[in-house]
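Exercise 7. Given the components listed, write out the predicted structure of the assembled complex. Treat all entries as one system.
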Amino acid sequence: MSNKIKINLKVNGENVTYEVEPQENLLRALRNNFNWDVKCGCEAGECGTCSVLLDGKEVKSCLTLAAACDGHEIWTDKGLGLNDRLTARLQEAFVECGSVQCGFCTPGMIMAGVEYLKNGGKADRKAIKYAISGHLCRCTGYIKIVDAIYKVAEEIEEGALA
Amino acid sequence: MSDFEFVNAPTVDSAIEALAQWGNKACLVAGGTNVMVDIRAKKIKDGTLINIRDIESLKKITYTDGKVSIGALTIIEEIAKSEIIKQHAPCLFAAANVFADPTTNRSATIGGNVGNASASGDTIPPLMVLNAIVHLKSKRGDREVPINEFIIKNGVTTREPDEMITHFTFESQPNTGFIKLGARRSMTISIATVAAYIETDKQSGIVKDCRIALGGVAPKPVRGTNAEKVFIGNKLDEDTFTKAGEAVQNDISPRSPSVRATASYRRSVVPVLVKRAVKLAAFGECE
Amino acid sequence: MKHNLKLVGTAVPRHDARAKAKGEQLFSDDWTMPNMLYGKVLRSKYPAAILRGIDTSKAEALPGVKAVLTAKDVPHNEDITKFGQMIDVGGGFEGLYKVLATGKIRSKSEAIALVAAETEEIAEEACNLIEVDYEPTEGVFDPREAIKDGAYLVSSEDNSNVIMRTKIQDGDVDKVWDQCDIIIENDYYTSPNDHAYLETEGGMGWLDENGVITLRVGSQVLEHYRTIAKILGVPHTMVRNISVPMGGGFGGKEDITVETYIALLVQKTRRPVKMVWSREESIETHAKRHPEYLHYKTGATKDGKIIAQQVSIVLDGGSYTYLTPWVQMYSTYAAAGPYKIPNVKIESVSAFTNNTLSSANRGFGSPQVNFAYERQMDQLADKLGISRVEIRKRNIMHNGDAMPTGFIPQGHIALEELIDKVDKSLNATPKPDRLPDGRKVGRAIAIGHMTYGRLTFMHDSSRVSIRIELDGTVTLRAGVPDIGGGQASVLAEIVAEELGLNIEDVHPFIMDTHLTPLCGTTTATRQLYMSGNAAMKAADVMRDRILNEASKILKYPVESLALGDRKVYLVNNPTVNVPFVTVVNSLSNNGGMLETIEQFNAPFTDVPNLKDIKGEVLPDLTYTCHGVEVAVDEETGVFEILRIIAGIDAGKMVNKNSCEGQVEGGAVYHSLWATHEDLQWRNGITKANNFSTYIIPTSVDIPDIETIILESGGGFGPYGAKGVGEPSDNSIAPAVINAIRDAIGTDLNLNKMPITYEKIMCACKGIKID
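Answer.
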């Protein structure tokens, strides 16, 4: 006997059907279906490692009810990097700038960076810092993460990513 | 077998239908920023989760004839960017811009923040000085409750189990300010917040009307009525601020022990925050 | 060694950065197996109690539960804690490792029982069904109380709460106090802090087809497999950890965390078992930085020369010994500060309490004493009317000066240059008294010294293997635990540099206890030093073989040839060359060996007299200087860090981004330690057990960081590198507090952590509240 629910959603461009408990969070639903790039750092909305794009907006998946995502669209760092030029460029910028140390906060940070850049975020260190302030990092001290997002913001402003 | 059920409610009608059906077992879920945390912490152990996140009609901010209306499902990010709110309710605009963090603010809704009725819910003191009306709807009809009567105590409101908050309304109040003190500069629950509304006589500088609301310093957000009495009829000078700071001590009852700050600290900073919120409301800056 | 470096010193990307950015890196929880069970630990209800009995029958009867284990089910429930050292030290240096509770329960995190079940929910429910008969006891939560006669005894195995006493002295402080014109005497307290790595502890285990218990658990100490084997009663060859890069370590994954629990459940159920700790369990359970109660008495003459430094330290070891004696030695060794002081007396005692276990945390005892001695320096300066920069310059060590044990560091001491450069940058423009918004501005510098490399009486060594493939690429095998500091990547960089290859030509395969040579622990800031040197040795051996073979091909003497751009070339005429891959194949055809494993040994010393430490105990030190500017809101005590200048002598930046990343990360790691990171321990209970209540910096809590990284070449790692991972978090905390002191003009409430906004506000009002 089970009251699990079947939900139909799009994850990283693919139509999928997940079986979830009524109260299950989206983080668990995604990870139970092998989206391992979505990380579980605290499961209480306090670290940002679980960020995904839900209908194009960056949200914390541990705070999101999975069943409520029926009929909605989700992108994760891994899928977006394979399908979106801006994300792929930002991922590469993280590599170039030394923004990746242990890498656990990285997928979430990239989601925050993508949200910032896709919404017209400028090459402004203070604004970038605020944009990622819902994401904790214990390794880098944030500096090189800001450097990477800043670099891509500059490239966008210069028309290099048009 | 899970102890929970799930119902999707994409419209207001379907939502109030579900609420009528499930009553006390119903749990509305908008952004999920409180409910999901409470489920994991087992503060919510069972019930029917009613998803209202997709109800587009409740996500609008409008301004008509001097009155602002904010849909309950408006996310904090929208409020933080809204020109209407910036102009007509600066205290709420400021609160939205120091609320949680940018990512969480894309899920968190104003209805969720008020409905959760935390003693440190950041949108509540601004709504209190705005004299906002909470609009509720059920199958039985519509109801309006002034915000100051809506919250009974931490986590408890006068919302009936079959009701949902649809929107908030208030008159345009540009002379309002808000200040938050938190442990760090983002993603932090407030140690103390103060919202203020001030109206002064242009010639004399004497305060004609004043409303102060405080968060995080009592079992629920409270009006600083003792402080208000000090302000009304006086100028906004250091002497008034000092007396107001003493008077407001009778309006608050900070929790002890507390994991976020001592009661003595809260009592010490509240007069400072009151002064700054009032200055923001009156002059637009607080130096 | 090559002199024209092509890769080393550049910002060449790490080999694993791309996979991490693309979301392809798999961590400990990113693994599943068919037929997998979930493991859970039942922890104690009380911080101090006597375990009278356990009834597991209801838990075992729950459908879906496959194992419930208590102490009686563990083949060898007790062993001695080991951290990969090659020798036993004895004398209380190693302590008890107890798997599941017996007798006295020593802390709230004591493991009472283990459960394996079909789902996480069933495992949790089973834990709730285990009936435990506790007899709560009073407990002791302050180590200063714990060391007194008649104190509550934490352990059922020892008749004292004292873990170790140690002393370092030089000269005779008692003879010179009356020669001092000024004496500064203060009590200090440093808080325990949580590592707060973004990835919690966890992993998986299973039985391979040959019955080997195979773990996939991220650990900074792969050598724990020996202990796990002993616990399980199997040979060392039958427990393997194929480990996995970690999402942060900082010392918190240095003790055994989940390994033994998983291994026992696998052994019992014969099925794969996964165990991952929640954030709350992680913060409540794993070891913390040692809280230290410090008493400093510093005496100086009026020209600012310190002639006496007397220190006493009481360390809170928490529930078990673990790394307490080691941390205690580090604290004691560093306690006088990087200063040349003729009379020094440092005494330390560590004690058991019923608090959470204390063990390794980035800095390992150095940051605690650093906080105290740098606070002392500013107070000394102010009392004498000498500038805070000048007082340090008058007392700092230089090359040739000795540590209080008598050991003269052989690496470079860059303190004067660091102070000058940091001070110059910090004070490039005059300090405003206040910001336009009214906040008071303060500036300060602080310096520090922290060792890299292990205690030399541990006889530390590391091994790295390289194999050249027939296509000219290189397989590097190293058991080097990677916690995100680029520990693996830098080895590949060194080998690529030495063999004249591109970085992508060398690929590291890492972290398998049985299939990769053991590199030793990722602790003590030792990997670049130890494994870097081992990698260098391995590369040197292969280079010699390649050059010898190339010499036969090109018909030029070996001394005239060099490696570069994937070729062997004639130095005087590079157009004369042969591709690297050609030489490799020729070597192979001629029966030469394309593979080698080399070992690097640190200096070996004997175990010193722990009660009166003399001579060399640690190989070398790294020196730091931090400059900080803050703005303080006097009415609320809220402060903002406006500027951080992080100065360090790295010896050599082997990888520029990695080195800067450590310096920046280290500064932020301790930027809010003294003020915000409060676990709120209340009689053995951790009140601040999640990220909402345990406050670490977000991106808007810290300014951009200016790094001043000197490259003296005076270290013992490859290319003259020193270690930077832990030294980088020294001296920032006292710089922040000294800057606050500079802003508010008083030392009131600024010596005991947590230095809250309330304490700062009260200090501004002249009210003492600590």
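Discussion: The longest helix of chain A spans residues 143-157. Residues 63 and 95 of chain A are 29 Å apart (CA to CA).
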